[in-house]
Amino acid sequence: MENISKDTKLSELSIPGTHDSTTQYVNLSPIFQCQDTDIQTQLENVYRYLDIRLVLKNDNLILKHNFAKCRKDKSLFSRPLTLDDLLEDVYFFLGSKSI
């Protein structure tokens, strides 16, 4: 990115990303699972935009895909994946890179 002119418009770039990025551990996975890797792995694989869907529930922003819930891990009783969980992965990734 450092070699791209500052005059370049965002619409002129091709930025790799993932669709429904947080659906690795989604309930109803045969229908709604679009990804088989977590956010950390997607970032390590050079995806640079994340498609996320948020809903406010009990003062928490949780990730969903339509009416299916995105989960923290593959356990049947796993808690919902939150925006804080996602940001933790993003911050960890950014902290591990020399920018």
3D architecture notes:
There is one protein chain. With 99 residues, the protein is α+β, with helices and mostly antiparallel strands. The protein has one domain. Helices cover 23% and strands 16% of the residues. It contains three helices and five strands. A three-stranded antiparallel β-sheet has the order 3-4-5, with no helix packed on it. The protein has a two-stranded parallel ribbon with strand order 1-2.
Q: What is the terminal-to-terminal distance?
A: 11 Å
Shape estimate: elongated
Overall pLDDT metric = 91
| Low-confidence spans | none
> Considering DSSP H and I runs of 4 or more, what fraction of the residues is helical?
10-25%
Protein name: Phosphatidylinositol diacylglycerol-lyase
GO biological process, one term: lipid metabolic process
Region (Disordered): 1-21
GO molecular function, one term: phosphoric diester hydrolase activity
Topology, element by element:
Layout: E1 17-18, H1 29-32, H2 39-44, E2 49-50, E3 54-57, E4 60-65, E5 68-69, H3 83-95
Parallel strand pairs: 1-2
Antiparallel strand pairs: 3-4, 4-5
How would you summarize this macromolecular structure in one to three sentences?
Residues 1-10 have a biased composition (Basic and acidic residues). The chain has 99 residues and is an alpha+beta fold.
